[in-house]
């Protein structure tokens, strides 16, 4: 079994990617990144997903709050809407400057350290909030850059970046995950979760239900005809 680094955020998409990597015969190694995100509960979800899948994981601390420029790494309010139709077409304030560019660079470094060549990333260019680092053109360009910038690349061992969800709708992603037996109650997607007083367990953290991520997630479950296990405020 070939080792594959799977970027695991704790969300619906990355959990599906982890299951796909296993289903395709890879031995996943989860890469979880603590970048100072305000929705830090996703780190709890990521750890639980890796433990449940019985895969090793590496946690990297990278505090992007020092850069700021995003509602996810600063005090800027997370935009809220009543429906998916209100989500704009421009790059939203929840975009984290160069996040996927940075995350993929770390994943390439971990691959080199592990002697691996495969990376799984749960980017999606269909049901998403307009982030530029979720597009196929970016993934293709990064793969070329990684080949030029690494020892493995110049020695003829290029990296393969797998993006199995990039052309799927959220409903299609959910249906694929359900077919593989994923329990989406273990995942966390909300950008601005609410924790009950004294709460420490995953089941006691509620999703806001109105941020872009919550709305796209809820619509995905509705379109798929699958019960949404998310606990909303």
Brief summary of the model shown:
This protein is of the alpha/beta class. It has 7 helices and 7 strands, in the order βαβαβαβααβαββα.
The CATH homologous superfamily: HUPs
What is the beta-strand fraction? 5-15%
Poorly predicted segments: none
CATH hierarchy: architecture: 3-Layer(aba) Sandwich
What oligomerization state is this entry in?
single chain
Order of helices and strands: EHEHEHEHHEHEEH
Helical stretch tally: 7
Helix and strand arrangement:
Blueprint: E1 3-7, H1 12-23, E2 27-34, H2 41-53, E3 57-61, H3 99-114, E4 118-120, H4 136-149, H5 151-154, E5 160-162, H6 170-179, E6 194-195, E7 205-206, H7 212-224
Parallel strand pairs: 1-2, 1-4, 2-3, 4-5
Antiparallel strand pairs: 6-7
Description:
The protein has 233 residues and is α/β, with parallel strands linked by helices. It is built from 7 helices and 7 strands; from the N terminus they run βαβαβαβααβαββα. The strands form 2 sheets. It has a 5-stranded parallel sheet with strand order 3-2-1-4-5, with helices on both faces. A two-stranded antiparallel ribbon has the order 6-7. Helix 1 crosses helix 6 (170-179) and helix 6 packs across helix 7. The radius of gyration is 17 Å and the shape is globular.
